[in-house]
Amino acid sequence: MDTAVRTGVSWRGDQLYLWVWGAILVVLGAGSLLLHPDFAVGDAVTDEHLFGVFEVNGWHGVAGLTSGLVALAFARSDRWAPTVAALVGGVGGVLPAIAMFLAGDGNVALGLIPVDYVDAVLLHLVPGLLGLAVAMRYAVCGISASGGMTPKRPDWKSSTAWISSARVFITKGP
Q1: 3-state secondary structure the chain
Q2: pLDDT tens sequence across 80-138
């Protein structure tokens, strides 16, 4: 099943990803800014541990808060949810994870963000890959992961009614 039903509203997987991950990012971003609002760069970068696990600073907080607010802003959109899920997953997840892995544990990525591998994996790589996966599933840029257009039909029609109609259309024309 492609949708989850909550209070009579259907949400697709990309929209659920944006709602849930957006809310988590807002909480983590705000927590980072409250805990350690330091915007130092280069060798002067310092960090604190949010929830005793994640190394954060002001730059990390701004990035998380911005990504989370963008995700929440587009979560209701059927049209833009797949694209924004891909952007949040790719730009906010996978790319920073790659930068963190290249910088190495205990170092500073891009001269801004303190690196620890727990953060790189749990808050960037895994959610980023999930965002890219749901975005591909729900037709990023009009390209469907199913390999083509899937016909929409009312629930009351049988699962094979559309194929019969298509065959009649193909053989006899419109």
Answers
A1: CCEEEECCEEEEHHHHHHHHHHHHHHHHHHHHHHHCCCCCCHHHCCCEEECCCEEECHHHHHHHHHHHHHHHHHCCCCCCHHHHHHHHHHHHHHHHHHHHHHHCCCCEECCCEECCHHHHHHHHHHHHHHHHHHHHHCCHHHCCCCCCCCCCCCCCCCCCHHHHHHHHHHHHCC
A2: 999 999 999 999 999 999 999 999 998 999 999 899 899 899 999 999 999 999 999 88
